[in-house]
């Protein structure tokens, strides 16, 4: 068992965590970043990335994360391959325990553990991820311009994604397993008023149909939840929009969470309910959920943390005089 101590401890290695590490390292914090259960975050499972600023051509998600990791290390970040299983935020330095048994101590803590999209859990869904099946319309909708697509879900996320996809697709079908939507009323009104959106009620996805070869998704097999009747919807894009799981289980009872279990931060800041603990990326952002916004909040968290340390050290120096 080894104890690793640092001024800035970062948990999570997606765009938010690595951006925080880059800014923290450049400020002389010598950050330690614990990579967690999925090093690189969600972009490690994303193939084509076409909307990250600075790249005229399509880039690969894993390549982008590899470059961010190299940059973080180059400027002085120490990366640890471990998963934190226990936290103590009752005093500073904060103390985290890894699955390896190692202890990580930080004068400040930046949480960038992200969120995972909820999936239906079908084998065909897994097989066609990135080949017609997606969980992010704003990430992948552009690839389906001129094509008919479907959205699965009935909450705010599903309705918002269906409306967004009309910017690219001539027709969008919303598939919902009930006969009413859970989305806010104003979103429902916009949805029902849109001439290019059709809603299929009481329908559950049985299978995503693979066209074989390079065709990818060509149809979705459905089952009526009331009658059991089977049907098929021809489509080239299927967007699963049934919500996200923020990775906050570790912090329940330690930090303030909202009703959807995202970490609460002060408006215009990354400060959490515990002084010296900051949150960035998808673990606190349920609105935008983009790599570029995650990276931006990672920068904010590092600057907020640096300011917190500077103020704490000033107060200590004043008290010692």
UniProtKB/TrEMBL annotation:
InterPro entries: FAD/NAD-bd_sf, FAD/NAD-binding_dom, Ferredoxin-NADP_redctase_2, Pyr_nucl-diS_OxRdtase_2_AS, Thioredox_Rdtase. It comes from the Bacteria. The keyword Disulfide bond applies. NCBIfam families: TRX_reduct. It comes from Sphingomonas psychrolutea. PROSITE patterns: PYRIDINE_REDOX_2 (PS00573). It is an enzyme of class 1 (oxidoreductase). Its EC number is 1.8.1.9. Belongs to the class-II pyridine nucleotide-disulfide oxidoreductase family. Binds 1 FAD per subunit. It catalyses: [thioredoxin]-dithiol + NADP(+) = [thioredoxin]-disulfide + NADPH + H(+). This is Thioredoxin reductase. Its cofactor is FAD. It holds the Pfam family Pyr_redox_2. Homodimer. Keywords: Disulfide bond, FAD, Flavoprotein, NADP, Oxidoreductase, Redox-active center. Residues 7-298 form the FAD/NAD(P)-binding domain.
């Amino acid at each position: 068992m080894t104890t690793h101590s640092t001024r800035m401890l970062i948990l999570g290695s997606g765009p938010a965590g690595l951006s925080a590490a880059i800014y923290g390292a450049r400020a002389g914090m010598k950050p330690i970043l614990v990579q967690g259960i999925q090093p690189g975050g969600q972009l490690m499972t994303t193939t084509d990335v076409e909307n990250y600023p600075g790249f005229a051509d399509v880039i690969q998600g894993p390549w982008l994360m590899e470059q961010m990791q190299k940059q973080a290390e180059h400027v002085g970040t120490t990366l640890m391959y471990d998963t934190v299983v226990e936290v103590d935020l009752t005093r500073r330095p904060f103390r985290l325990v890894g699955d390896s048994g190692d202890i990580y101590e930080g004068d400040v803590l930046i949480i960038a553990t992200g969120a995972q999209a909820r999936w239906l859990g079908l084998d065909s869904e897994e097989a066609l991820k990135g080949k017609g099946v997606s969980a992010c319309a704003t990430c992948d909708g552009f690839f389906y311009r001129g094509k008919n697509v479907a959205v699965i879900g009935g909450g705010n996320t599903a309705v918002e994604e269906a409306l967004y996809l009309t910017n690219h697709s001539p027709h969008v079908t919303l598939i919902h397993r009930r006969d009413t939507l859970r989305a806010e009323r104003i979103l429902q009104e916009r949805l029902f008023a849109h001439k290019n959106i059709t809603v299929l009620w009481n329908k559950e996805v049985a299978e995503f149909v693979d066209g074989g070869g390079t065709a990818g998704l060509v149809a979705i097999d459905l089952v009526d939840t009331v009658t059991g009747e089977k049907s098929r919807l021809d489509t080239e894009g299927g967007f699963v929009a049934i919500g996200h799981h923020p990775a906050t289980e570790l912090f329940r009872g330690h930090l303030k969470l909202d009703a959807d279990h995202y970490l609460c931060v002060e408006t215009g800041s990354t400060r959490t309910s515990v002084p010296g603990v900051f949150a960035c990326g998808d673990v606190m952002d349920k609105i935008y959920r983009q790599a570029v916004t995650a990276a931006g909040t990672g920068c904010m968290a590092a600057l907020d943390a640096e300011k917190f340390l500077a103020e704490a050290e000033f107060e200590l120096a004043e008290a010692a005089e």
